Predict the structure.
Amino acid sequence: MSNLKGLNTQLQRVMNEAKTLRAEMASKSENGTKEYEGLSDDRTKLAKLVDSAEGLKGQIEIEQKAAELETYAQQQPGQVEYVGSEPAGDTVIEQRKQKDGKLSLKAIFEDGVPGISEKQLGVISTKAYKDAFNQYLRKGIYGMESLGRGEIKTLQEGVDSQGGFLVPEEYLARIIQKLATPTRVAGYVTRLNTSRDALNIPKVNYTTDDLYTTGIRVTWTGEVPASSTAHRVTDPVFGNVRIPVHTSMLSMPITNDMVEDSAFPLVPWATGKFSETIDLLYDNMILNGSGIGQPAGILLNPDGTDQPAVVKSGDANLIKPDGLIALAYAVPEQYDENCRFVFNKTNTGKAIAQLKDGSNRYLFSSGDYGDAGLVNGRPKMLVGYPYAFSGFMPDIAANAFPVIFGDFGGYYLVNRIGFSVQVLRELYAETNQIVLLGRIRFGGQVAEPWKLKIQKIAA
């Protein structure tokens, strides 16, 4: 008890000194300018006194708690059972079992001095303490007087034995989440804009061969043509490609409490996720769009009218080297400049990488073979052409279409209204919510099917 009495005496002396100093500071401010000479030194001295007082207060609380526990243990023998302890940084967490079966925790420093009490552990884990601690950090020790009485009281409940305030558990301002699949395909297609609900593009209907673009041909008439129409050619037959524009929307409700209490910027995060979803939507629609209320994808109707032609793999269930070569050489040479393969990585890409020759050597290789297998990394070309992975491409299966090859500029993506996000605050105000509303209008379809070929898993 003598130690407790000495601590109280020291605390009283420090508080009297701090009180006197504050009175002197107030008097100097009233009699002179607000920023009188020596104000900074006085503030520093006051801060040290406050730190000292807080430290003494913490030690007093610990002494009082220790005395209470000692008295309790003497009066109630066998009521508290020691369970064990485990290290936690500079302290050891002791676990004791109460008579009612509940566990109590106490942090003990390595030198045996009690550390963070169970009460303090509970206090610094509360939201109120974290909010007060954040305010303290923003305003600093010189701004203690600007903290509310409730904030000061909350912080004092978490004072450690060395003075100052205990730091609450760290909360990293980020969120753990998966990465989205890469969105590469939308960057390969032809992008156009329109101011109407559809875009119409004139087209020359010519399908006779891949050499000429029209039916116009030269006729060798000689010096004197046999007739006035001997050199007459078939006139071009014109058609039209119509790409309708479709509207899509997405929304996400968020409570006002979530926005106010979130440790990271929730609304910007959600807006970013909206944009990410639209990027994924572009790739998905370019490949798999149904054409009903949405864009028509490349894989909508392979080998159909005005659609990319199909090249069979050569096996009813597998991807084959000869099939890939046949696919690459099915696109006419005038489109070679921008040709590439597109397939998914985890299924089709793996199957291609595992293709072997008659000597059991991998065909899809880059570099030499050694005792440990392939020496160099994954090659960047397939049959002499670049390739790209897309998670929206289908897997290998009978009658599936897992690989597309060609110039993806043959697909036209038409934008009417770019992606936008609205924050609706009034509509759901009575339910304490805001709604993020996203909207976009675009369309798309294959306009030049001769630039693309599709591999079909079939014999």
Notes: The first helix runs from residue 2 to 31. The chain has two domains: 1-76, 185-216+235-456. The chain has nine helices and 17 strands.
